[in-house]
Amino acid sequence: MQAVTKKVITVILGVLTVSAVLLYVFFNPEEENLFFAKCPIYSTMGIHCAGCGSQRAVHDLLNFRIEQAIGHNLLLFPAVVVIGQHLLTAYFLKNTKSWLRYTKAPIIILVVILLFMVLRNLKFYPFTYLAP
């Protein structure tokens, strides 16, 4: 019973992931307001959070526009690397430890996210390049 439930959940997550990828490939978050939410932090406080621009960056990345994706959210690339390494170790490299399994990983990730958020809101060179 438990194995069947796990397979059903895996299939559902797979379908949702493929649907999300197709949504981001074919619809541009900059142009389509129907599917994509606006950042509540930027809308209410006028500051860029660490995730601002990530929807546009994902769209650009899936359409192989790397330079534009970097311009929208530079933090997306280290996140993709870390998540990719975690998935590889979970499914293929079972003898390798995922970076996310280290005890200090959550603290390091939090510090990087907060530092990125502060730096991208500074209004002088070179930090203006971090804003989406």
Describe the structure in your own words:
- The protein has 132 residues and is an all-alpha fold.
- Helix content is 60%, strand content 0%.
- The protein has six helices and no strands.
- α3 packs antiparallel against α4.
- 12% of the residues are buried.
How are the SSEs ordered, and which strands pair?
Blueprint (H helix, E strand, L loop, with lengths): L1 H25 L13 H6 L8 H9 L3 H7 L3 H16 L13 H16 L12
Number of strands: 0
Structure classification: mainly alpha
List the total number of helices: 6
Order of helices and strands: HHHHHH
The stretches of 5 or more residues where confidence is low (pLDDT under 50) are none
Question: How would you state the average pLDDT, rounded?
Answer: 87
Q: How much of the polypeptide forms β-strand, as a percent range?
A: under 5%
Overall outline: globular
Terminal CA distance: 47 Å
Task: Please give the share of residues in helix.
Answer: 55-70%
Radius of gyration: 17 Å
Q: How does the major sheet shape up?
A: none
Describe this protein with a few key phrases.
60% helix, 0% strand, 132 residues, globular, single chain, mainly alpha
Gist of the model:
This protein is mainly α and 132 residues long. 60% of the residues lie in helices and 0% in strands.
